[in-house]
TrEMBL record:
Keyword presence, Nucleotide-binding: no
Protein source organism: Dokdonella immobilis
Family the entry assigns: Belongs to the ALAD family.
The name this protein goes by in its record: Delta-aminolevulinic acid dehydratase
Gene Ontology cellular-component terms listed: cytosol
Amino acid sequence: MTFPHTRLRRMRRDAFSRELMRETRLHPGDLIMVAFVIDGSDRREAVPSMPGVERLSIDHSLNLADDCVALGIPALALFPSVEAQYKSADAAEAWNPQGLFQRAARALKARHPQLGLIGDVALDPYTTHGQDGLIDDHGYVLNDLTIEALVRMALAQAEAGFDIVAPSDMMDGRIGAIRDALENAGHVNTRILAYSAKYASAFYGPFRDAVGSSASLGKGDKHTYQMDIGNSDEALREVELDIGEGADMVMVKPGLPYLDVVRRVKDHFGMPTFVYQVSGEYAMLKAAAQNGWLDERSVVLESLIAMKRAGADAILSYYAIEAARWLRAD
Ligand SMILES: NCC(=O)CCC(=O)O
Ligand SMILES: [Mg+2]
């Protein structure tokens, strides 16, 4: 009679030994909630392609922030959805100190000074054409002119109280330019979360509905600045440049389809590495759950743990509040 010398099933036999050898655990403290803010008061608008997600006026965003704090979620990432009258070719509303986004930041920081507030730095919610930057006559996004606009935008956000500015535009050199401008203005502790490896992904579709840029973008795409989905070495080059320019945290986006990239980035640089479970990932999970095809709680937590296991230090997610509730009920 021969026996297996090693029985890995032995440790799986009981809950106590499974618990003792569990390598990766998810905490509310790993999560960053994502929210969309709109003008007006007492307004909540459903986002049809993201059931359960709503655009919120500032007063309702404060309630969402209350939930984050109560659940131990350390930070909130905010995106604006602005009305057409505030969109222009030069995106100037993006750095208006009295604009929606800056007002929202002041209100949120006044309510919860300890809740980390992350501002999105990219022009797409503010441009009439829905691109993340300024364009020439052929629709090509101009790198260096766009950086000037992004610098204004980042400064306005730091001024309004955002703790972290998060350039999500993928222009070359914008992290360094923003870092210099923040230092010169005395914002030495404003952190930069660089969307370093942001792929030209079709999983962003529902987000563009949420911020109202899909109509403006029309048939346009973002392939001249976001990364090709087949590339992974290039992600390391992007991350390396952003670190050199002064990023405090780097990000890979989307999440689940790109966990190989997360692992390479984490192993290579040992940087605080964040991952974004994007709108399309949310929509897939939600749709399957609503149809009764998948168990929502299990698949959401499994997806988030997979991201952490791949090396993510923190995860931006539309599910953050729900996931934190599930974790606390465990
Ligand atoms: N800058 C944010 C995006 O481009 C999209 C995020 C998402 O799809 O959730
Ligand atoms: Mg880059």
